Amino acid sequence: MDALQEWIAFHLAVGVEHFVIADIGSSDGSYAYLRELKRLGLVTLVRPSGVDDTSSEPFSSEPFVYHSLLAACPATLDIVAFIGVDEFLLPLDEHGAQTMIANKPNPKRLPNWLGEIFSNPEVSALALNSACFGSSGERFRGDGLVIERFTQRSSRTFRYNRFYKSVVRPSRVRHFDNECHATLKTGHYVDGEGKPLQVVDGRPGVSRRVCWQGARINHYAVKSVEEFVLSRVKQRAGSALTATQGDAYFSRFDRNTRKSSVAKAWASHVYLQALSLPSTSVFAVPFYAPRQSWWRKTLSASLSWWRHARYAFVHSRSAPLKPPITAWKRTWPQQSRGLLTQRGVLLQASLSVAGLSPVNGNVQLVCCWQEGVECVLPVTRFEFTDGESTSGTVHFRVELPVRAGNVTLSAVLTTETSEQRIPLERLTLMHDASAQELQASALIGQQGWLFLDQDTNASLYQHLGYISLRQEAIDNWIAYAEQLTTLSIQANANVLMVIAPSKEKVMHAYHPYPMGAVTPVDQVVEALPDAFCLYPEALLKQMGDDAYHVTDTHWTQQAAMRVTCEAVSRLGLAALEDAERWFAEDEYKVVQVRGDLGSKLNPVRRAATPRLNSFDHREHKRYDNGLPNFGRVIVWENSDAVLDQCCLVMGASSSYMMFPFLVRIFRRVIFVHSAGNVDVSLVHSVAAQVVLVQTNARFMVAAPQVTWSLQDTILEKTEGVSMEEHTAAFAQRMPAEQTALAGWGVDKWNDCLPEGWFSA
Fold first, then answer.
1. Which of 13, 336, 346, 752 matches a 20 to 30 Å C-alpha distance to 89?
2. What pTM, to 2 d.p., does this model score?
3. Does residue 42 fall inside a structural domain?
4. Cβ atoms within 10 Å, residue 310
5. CA 710 from centroid of its chain's CA atoms
6. Domain total for the chain?
7. Is the same domain home to 717 and 671?
8. In a domain, 294, yes or no
């Protein structure tokens, strides 16, 4: 995440509502990025000319830049803070410590505290002292937020901490003496204690003492060596700044004498706010030119980076509003125009409510784009009507996790005694042919752990707890379980469903975003019979870091072994201890794995992981139709297996890690990639004693089908595929004799492959 996005997201999290930013001649794409924020109404953008921003000293900015900002300041902003893009306005309590609510930072602290300071009509300006943060010994730019990476600061007595930045009533400012201090028309300055500001004689902008009560300015002046050098090269190109002066500046501010994680506690809030902002990576540039921000009152939000795309509303129908809703206004998407985000389409709208306080989750916006699934979208901010707490307007700036299709929006109003759902609007979105489809991407978490970003299953929103299943979707799961139970009796097979927990659920301590209380998989597991379903979340959590690959969404082979043994035990085929002893002598070798997540980064990222080295299940593979993903069929036979039984696996990608262990347990293993969908005719044909139905937690927004057809899937995937295409893409193919195929009961599904499918 780029520093500018973090800077804006941080200030949104602590209570900022609007920004007035001066772009002082940047040529790196920053202006284009800020223009996107302006289109949303978040930023008032100013681009003054003739600014000399080449000096390295604190008082270098020309005062007329501030006059341009004051002139551009919207009349609705009554309090204005002047800070730089490397400065973070951090709320603290009266003792200079973090303010918490239920062990989480209090986002209302800063606006409430400033309201108290400026409630005195004589106060026209507030001085906030700095806390200078050093490099924390980091030479290169690492993963994560600035507030996460740099947690070592100077001592309070460091002389540069006496510099302050000003929070002012803009109408009372006559002019700025420098970037720290304003000359006022009326009123006076106070410090964080509300006491008259004491300035060093002849040095406005430098206080006699450092006050960190109420709030302070965290100043990340240098960051890592790499970031400092790159920023100096870009900012000072063509200036008289020498390398020696740059070294002196770094040495002066690289102070790491105190540990401070107060700002880091805001990280999860910042990540959530970043979901509502464009990413500067779209423009492939870092940001350094703008120097000022303006702010007021309170805000919180959710979204990520976007690109422009033409959008057509082939249908947009508003439902009649019902009390207590008095107005519904959508500003984005607009007719025939919208903003694509990384995870879908930007929605910006407001909802006015009478007679119901729009706080504490009383008003929610629900988005439905899939039958039985709903997404509760977070409120960006709320405001009361005429100061009354019983009426007001809630604002939303969020991603709809869909780029095309039907989307239904509803408001859910909750009181102590009832819940009311009011339809708002139905949209039919259809993007043009040039717009890219939704692509899954990787999130970088703590200590380099990678996680799946949004995909077609809205995985990130599932993790956040935004996605939930309605009763009809849960009923589909119950019916699915009942159908499989009936099938197990008819086929005389032992059936067990194995659900692979999501990596973000098990390894949530490393995930950048907070985990929601309830996810769809929790709803389904609670509804299904215990004997039918194995959901090994607790088992994998016990394994710690050994449960998942750092750079892959899937569990490790060690985790797959534990789950396989648990499944054998649940099926009554062997005691758990005996099953684990079967693999006690396995040997593993540490290898570098890029995985399905590491492959999504540029450059590709790899991480060390143990891989089974003493057994290769491919030596026992007898057939493979080579289809990628859905429709793939593989058969193994192992005469040395523990059990003289056949196991049919109707599974998903997590099944692949189980192959080395299943092949040693069962004399014959037949795998069909179906993600839990079941072809009843196949179950009867292969006559397996054991049927494992395996799926991944993120797929559980919809129940699989027992009416699924493997033949139709194979025909659909192979239709129109040229010999060159399948020769290049399906390198894993392995043919088998017709008699063997018939003996295994899979000849029907081999015969539907195109002629010459297994030819070189």
1. 346
2. 0.86
3. yes
4. 13
5. 35
6. 3
7. yes
8. no
